[in-house]
Amino acid sequence: MRLERLILYILSGIIAALLSWNFSQMILRIVRILSSGTLPFRPDFILLPVLAFFFAITMVATEIFLSNPTRYRNNFQTLRSYFIKTILWSFIAGIVAAFSTVILYEFTPLSATNIKRVAWCIVGLCTGICEGLSWRSRSIEGLTERGNQRIKNTIIFGSIAGFSAALIIEKLLTHNSLPQEYHEPFGFLTFGLILGTFLCFATSPTSQVALRAGEGLESINPQVIKEEILTGVIRDRPKLKPKGGFQFVIEPDNTGVNAKEPDVIEEGLSIQLPAGRIITIGGSTDDDIYLPKIPPQCAVIQVKIPYAEITCHHQSVVEIYPQPKKKSSDSKYNLWHNQVITFKNPDGEEFYRFVFYDRFLDPQ
């Protein structure tokens, strides 16, 4: 797991904590003014829904922008589409947590400390659910076994984070001379830090990586293929030589041309890159990924956990965007998530684009 990812999740948790604390205090102040200084209900009915909302929307936004770090405009559009859903989910969870505290206070002998632990556990669980559901609805593997496991991780880690934060805050405040009025904001801040850390580990990408076929690798139209077969003119298509872990992440539909040519690379398909194996890309039929009309063995990719390395044998043929920050004398570069790799023939008429993923459980 990259340090930058952990730092971003922690900062997101801290920002959510600060926003939720300030916003909830503003609402409580307004309600007290309107009700002549006395709240008509427990503060939990403001604090917990606000806390749940800011944590949920912040963590969902963090996951969306980490999944596609180079597509800012699309990310904002995606976030906008999940905004109302997240508000609804978080509001329900916050109200449930607030009612739970009332029930526990009135009908159980539990102490205020234990009730707070339960409430924060519910808020953490809610954040995990919101993040997991938003990811599932956008991921090609949302309904697979690995997708279900990822959602379970976010829910479990979110719950544990809420409970752990409550325990840690109790210990810290017991041996701390902070004035009473700072206890609550300090608790929110600690909760945000812990929740961000836990969800970073829960959603951390696996060491499995993939290349997703993009522009230049068109989708195959079965009708066009039929016409080519009838005329006897069949185009040379990009193909892959599957072996072991080197294969499509999700097999193409067994229809049309793919019923005869399951190794054809289409736009939108992701190719799994196994750790340790050297994958060659070029215009030779001996290359692992065959791209017609470009020089043979243009590049070599090798996954070296926790990163992947590309060696460009033909600098004029291979383009990487965003470009690596450091120029390499041996043409070797480390790849990162969502980097675009373009292969083109010398005259520029043919080109193929792939997007590098270091977490093909993420939305594609």
TrEMBL record:
Top-rank taxon: Bacteria
Chain ranges passing through the membrane: 6-24, 45-66, 86-105, 117-135, 155-174, 186-204
Keywords recorded for this protein, A-Z: Membrane, Transmembrane, Transmembrane helix
Protein name as catalogued: Uncharacterized protein
Organism for this UniProt entry: Calothrix parietina FACHB-288
